[in-house]
Amino acid sequence: MNRHRNSLGPDWVERAEPIEGVERIEAYFHGKAYAMHRHDTYAIGRTLAGVQSFNYRRERCDSLPGHTIVLHPDEPHDGQAGTREGFQYRMIYVQPSLFQDVLGGSALPFLEGGLTTDPRLSAATGALLQQMSHTLEPLEQNDALTELVHALAAITSTGKIAPVGDYRAARRAREFLHAHCSRTVALEELETATGRDRWSLSRDFRHFYGTSPYRYLTMRRLDAVRRMLLAGTALSHAAAAAGFADQSHMTRHFTRAFGMTPGAWQRVARG
């Protein structure tokens, strides 16, 4: 389905067929799109039309067509139209674990300001920011992600920063949390699974994956909730199946992570 900018028309979000670790969307919003929120993935995108405005690290950013947006994991941000005509954009959400598959334990790249016109990054995001109707083959996605990580590391000089912390322990923790995300995980379990004390592990996990172990666990539960909502599952049933205490508990976390309530997200995602 091809959609085009529709001045003051209904908001919509078109989602590509997901591939593990990467979510791709194209969307149109007028007015306020998202309240302040944060998620544990990189958000990398391009404005197609209009002015895409957002607050990020205490600054107002205005992205114009051709700009590349790079928001670091777990950094609060919002989103709204900079003009009354609204804005259209494409965005990919990439789990930091895929960055680490390329970096192998180096620090995650951080782009100051969240916006760039650097042609290296524009070229590196070309394949990943294609129309939603284009299904990325696994090898195509892998090559594109590798190019993206290298370009972002070069632009931010991340490759010059010496690795610190225990990457193997952090990776084992991520794998354990991923496998047990629908239940409560005790700190002692993570210590046993990784051979690392909880304080060092928490520091290393944030360094390599951009968020805390608990936030990572919560986000995987929210990913499960979104899949169930798209399949038509009731909110209360989705919350319970994903491991939340109740629907209100899930809704609070959902809104903080995605900037809108589950019901509002469901309406836009289906629109």
From TrEMBL:
A UniProt-annotated Pfam family: HTH_18
Record flagged with keyword Glycosyltransferase: no
Gene3D superfamilies: Homeodomain-like (1.10.10.60)
Residue intervals of the HTH araC/xylS-type domain: 171-268
Top-level taxonomic group: Bacteria
InterPro entries referenced in this protein's UniProt entry, alphabetically: AraC-bd, AraC_XylS_family_regulators, Homeodomain-like_sf, HTH-like, HTH_AraC
PANTHER family attached to this UniProt entry: HTH-TYPE TRANSCRIPTIONAL ACTIVATOR RHAS-RELATED, TRANSCRIPTIONAL REGULATORY PROTEIN
Name by which UniProt lists this protein: AraC-like DNA-binding protein
Phylogenetic lineage: Bacteria, Pseudomonadati, Pseudomonadota, Betaproteobacteria, Burkholderiales
